[in-house]
Amino acid sequence: MNDSLSDARVIGIDLGTSGIKLVMLSADGTLEAEASAPLEVSRPQPLWSEQSPADWWAALDTAMRHLREAAGGARWAKVRGMAAAGQMHGAVLLDAAGEVLRPAILWNDGRSQAQCEALERAEPATRRITANRAMAGFTAPKLLWVAAHEPQVFAKTARVLLPKDWLAWKLTGVFSTEMSDASGTLWLDVAGRRWSDAMLKATGLDASHMPMLFEGPDVVGELSPACAERWGLPAGVLVAAGAGDNAAGAVGVGVVSPGDGFISLGTSGVVFCATHEARANPERGVHTFCHALPGTWHHMGVLLSASSALSWWSGVTGLAPGALMDELGGAIRSTRPDAPFFLPYLSGERTPHADPSATGSFIGLTHAHGRADMSRAVIEGVSFAFADALDAMREAGSRPERLLAIGGGARSDTWLQLLADVLGTPIDKPEGAEVGPALGAARLALMGLGVSRDDVLRRPAIARSFIPDAAHAAGLAARLQRFRAAYAPLRALNP
Ligand SMILES: Nc1ncnc2c1ncn2[C@@H]1O[C@H](COP(=O)(O)OP(=O)(O)O)[C@@H](O)[C@H]1O
Ligand SMILES: O=C(CO)[C@@H](O)[C@H](O)COP(=O)(O)O
User: Which InterPro entries does UniProt cross-reference here (predicted)?
Assistant: First the structure.
């Protein structure tokens, strides 16, 4: 590392769904400060999920002030770089003057199923070009929905940005994105790592609506003087392109070589495996996306409600997620034959069902069951949904031998052991499990400053490993078959 870099600091931003998280790293990758600010999701109509970009900016502003306090003046003065990770797929529509035209439509918004079908009809090569099937959370169908239902907004749309790229534009004045997040738009030729004119045309757009494409560590611009002054940062801070939150989470825990994998227990649930090529399995809803580093790709299975199912149950019961898990304790492993089931499709599902209208259900309740049985069902149901997602990924050729666990749900050792038993895969809980994507963004910023990839991409220290327990796994495998059988008949009851 050259001398001028050795005392530099970088800031990593993670624009999550439930909040914005920031970290500061030293040039040797040490985590020196953290800060966060919460965010709310608005669900004004069934299937809708929206946030206001102005709220993201206000949360970033609050969190930057907290990070400055946590870091201290001497370190703050040495900030040389930053980068953002963020919730993927969201559509931020801007007019020609750069004004936001409507609330951002988020990754877990299910309104555009009809437009997914229309998109694949309009461009029959969609799955070949994009390596993915059209799913309602992705960006392109959202634009078709806007064209059909808000034509005046569509007509004024001059640019479409992804959530973290809107923040980057506010930070630098540059319209940019990078390969990992762009993969979730359905406008990217994922194998070729370039915009697809055919996919843009099928959505009524062209290349002028798209930001410039970068690789994750590339520098896209400098922090604007106005932002530097507002937060008391030095002039000339370089802003790197960053990554979608999952690719960034992978960089944060060093999951970059083919076969490396992680499981993310955030609002959404993700099983992620790095690959050396864009090998697709779109039929079962496997996401085949570019990774944040040039020449690499990854597979993902995505659950729309993972820890958010626990948060929902926490709201219903009035007990915090941690308290619910404590109440369960060891009971999570004693599978009663009459234990109820839970289908966790509270906001539809992507992998493997690709069904935004799927709903959640408790099944098999009797007078014998109480809160703890239902909490257990929620956690088990989300874990079974992870098993379905991993199965679809294995079909696509991704068979991770171990999984690192990240995201808010990874706070619970009880849940991680259950997941190891259900998936039949050892799970490693890294130190600092909760800062994955922000840490990954900060690492990309370090690479943007010129720190070598090998110096940056270290694997984390493991706080604890969870090894599958064969005796428990056998009972769970039988329950998983019954869980799988429940989706189709219950789906038939929905309008
Ligand atoms: N002790 C705990 N055990 C299990 N899950 C928890 C615990 N504390 C918080 N959570 C879950 O963590 C989730 C937030 O995770 P996070 O990774 O921050 O989400 P996101 O990045 O999507 O905003 C919440 O949905 C909550 O249910
Ligand atoms: O839609 C996806 C990935 O395809 C989600 O993973 C979002 O990127 C949201 O992430 P979190 O807010 O749960 O971290």
Answer: ATPase_NBD, Carb_kinase_FGGY, Carb_kinase_FGGY_CS, FGGY_C, FGGY_Carb_Kinase, FGGY_N, Xylulokinase
The two three-digit tokens of residue 131, written as one number: 């390596």
Per-residue model confidence as pLDDT tens digits over 292-318: 999 999 999 999 999 999 999 999 999
**What is the whole-number distance in angstroms between the Cα of residue 226 and the centre of ligand 2?**
30
List the structure tokens of 368: 């014998």
pLDDT in tens, 206-235: 999 999 999 999 999 999 999 999 999 999
H helical segments located in 159-270: 163-172, 179-182, 197-202, 225-231, 245-252
- Binding site for substrate: what residues are annotated? 88-89
Report pTM.
Answer: 0.94
Residue 189: pLDDT band with limits 50, 70, 90: very high
Return the minimum-mean-pLDDT range out of 160-174, 181-195, 291-305, 467-481.
467-481
Annotated binding-site positions: 88-89
What band does 1 get if pLDDT is binned at 50, 70 and 90? low
Give the pair of three-digit tokens for residue 113: 């199923």
Structural tokens at position 30? 């040490």
- C-alpha–C-alpha distance, residues 58 and 112, integer Å: 29
Return all residues near 362 (Cβ < 8 A) that are at least 6 apart: 340, 341, 342, 374, 377
Q: Cβ(325) to ligand 1 under 6 A?
A: yes
Contact yes or no for 121/134 (Cβ under 8 A)? no
Query: Is the distance from CB of 238 to CB of 224 less than 8 angstroms?
Result: no
- pLDDT (tens digit per residue) in 333-343: 777 789 999 99
Average pLDDT, the chain: 95
DSSP string covering 285-330: T-EEEE-SSTT-EEEEEEES-SHHHHHHHHHHHT--HHHHHHHHGG
Q: Please give the ipTM for the structure prediction.
A: 0.96
Ligand nearest to the CA of 245: 2
What is the C-alpha separation between 440 and 438, in angstroms, rounded? Answer: 5
3-state helix, strand, coil in the chain (%, to 5): 40, 25, 35
What domains, with CATH codes, occur in the chain?
Answer: 3-253 (3.30.420.40)
On the CB side of 276, CA atoms within 13 Å amount to: 3
| Three-state secondary structure of 448-475 | HHCCCHHHHCCCCCEEEEECCCHHHHHH
Catalytic residue IDs: 245
Tokens 């079909």 map to which residue? 395
